[in-house]
Amino acid sequence: MAHVIQFSEAAFIALHGMVIVAKSKELVNVVQISEQLKSSKHHVAKVMQRLVKDGYLYSHRGPTGGFTLKKEPKDISLLNLYESIEGKIEIGDCPLDNPVCPFNRCIFNNVTRKMTEEFVNYMGGETLDKFI
Predict the structure, then answer these.
(1) Domains and CATH numbers, the chain
(2) For position 94, what pLDDT does the model report?
(3) HEC states along the chain?
(4) What is the pLDDT of residues 39-49, one digit of tens each?
(5) How far apart (Å, rounded) are the C-alpha atoms in residues 19 and 130?
(6) CA separation, residue 118 to residues 4, 54, 98, 115, 124 (Å)
């Protein structure tokens, strides 16, 4: 089945993994996150380390280690997390970034621009504290 909007598994892990960490009063490790999300622990580890590198998490090593938030949940938007994994979202007119349309008007009637703007506005307005 086709989906108009599709998230990468990495973005899914980042968003949901951060909510899991934010909800926990204790350290949360890769195994716990991977079990809850039914994702590979190796993929979860890679994504979570990206979020550590970008300043959203602390990583505590060792057998009793795991992750904790580095910032307050109210200061972390879903857009921050999405862009940490996928890169900065650029709002453009053409989904293929063509500078010139071969037709007199866009056959998509700029719906992709509108959808992207709505997505950015929604994700930017939603913060982790709303999911705790």
Answers:
(1) 9-131 (1.10.10.10)
(2) 74
(3) CCCCCCCCHHHHHHHHHHHHHHHCCCCECHHHHHHHHCCCHHHHHHHHHHHHHCCCEEEECCCCCEEEECCCHHHCEHHHHHHHHHCCCCCCCCCCCCCCCCCCCCCCCCHHHHHHHHHHHHHHHCEHHHHC
(4) 999 999 999 99
(5) 9
(6) 14, 25, 22, 5, 10
Residue with tokens 């979860």: 44
Question: Each residue of 12-30: pLDDT tens digit?
Answer: 999 999 999 999 999 999 9
C-beta of residue 95 within 8 angstroms of C-beta of residue 114: no
CA distances from 3 to 6, 71, 108 (A): 6, 33, 16
> What residues in the chain have per-residue pLDDT under 50?
none
- pTM comes to 0.90
